[in-house]
Amino acid sequence: MSWPELPEVTHIIGREEIDLYAELSGDYNPLHMDAEFAAKTRFGTVIAHGPIGLQTVFEAVGSWLGDEAGGVRIDVLYRGPVRLGDAVTFLADSPQEHAGDLVFTARCVNQNGDEVLQALVVIPRHIAPRKD
Amino acid sequence: MPLFSELRYESLAVGDRWGPFVDSLDREASDRLRGSLGNAVTGTVAPLGVLPLLTLRALRRALGGIVPGGVLIRQHFSLAESFPADAETETVVWVSAQQQRPSGFYTTFSFEIAHANRTKAAVEWMILAPPSDEGTANELA
Question: In whole angstroms, what is the distance from residue B49 CA to residue B38 CA?
Answer without folding.
Answer: 12
